Amino acid sequence: MKERTIKSLKAVKVGIAGNIMLAIFKVVLGILAHSIALISDGVDTAIDVVKSFIVYRGIKIAGEPPDSSHPYGHGRAETIASNIIGISVIFAGILIIIQSIATFGKTNALETLMLIGAGTSIIGKIILSTYMSRVGKKFSNQALLADAKDYLGDVFASSAVVVGALLIIFTGKTFFDGIASIVVALIIMYMGYKVLQPGLQEIMEEQDNPKIVEKIEQIVNEFPKAINPHLIRMSKLGSYYIVDMHLEFPGSMSIEESHRIVSMIEREVKSKIPEVQDITIHVEPFGNK
Ligand SMILES: [Zn+2]
Ligand SMILES: [Zn+2]
Question: What structural domains and CATH numbers belong to the chain?
Fold first, then answer.
């Protein structure tokens, strides 16, 4: 394995281990403190752990080369993983809201324990995030950088718990625990939506990358005999694209000649645009619709 892969995998493992400790710490402290908000925050961190496991398993499967039963490659393994995560996270948020409403005002949250739990979590997440973004930047690993950003987002959830605890201290009203946990649940659901949305766009084959279309047209323009590129369609599979398109040639040109040019264009596109894993070009005589 390359140094980049080893160091990146190590950072992932440190992140997962740190999150497991924080999740257990917050859930246990949340139970001791009778605080739904702190328990929800702990559940949020536990979801992150599961998310990391599934995402990296997905990335591993997605990296396998195409085979006869999956000629487009295995890129959608990543998409399936992120869709499952997105739906489960939104569902977890709904459960927390139901629980918060059912017990609203009836819990007796201990604000000091809430502060200790959420405060420790904020410090821990900032340390983890700084470490992972440093490794991510060093090896320009997008997955690590995304994780580092995600950890900073978790700080908001813990901050809601801190604010809830402070409000309990100043007002003496423990229902702020319920309000804080609803805020945490809304943050959780928003994060779930952010994970789910690109996966749904991909399954619906939404054409989301005009920049790649532009680059393909530029490459075609370097071949003067190839005219009027049109119907450029892209299928996204996780982190790469499969492209097909139409291209016109003079009607008198031999099949041999047009095939030669088309093959060159296909090679150029694949080498100049790394996101394009494969491209098929449909040839037609000039002026055809
Ligand atoms: Zn056409
Ligand atoms: Zn061919």
Answer: 3-203 (1.20.1510), 210-285 (3.30.70.1350)
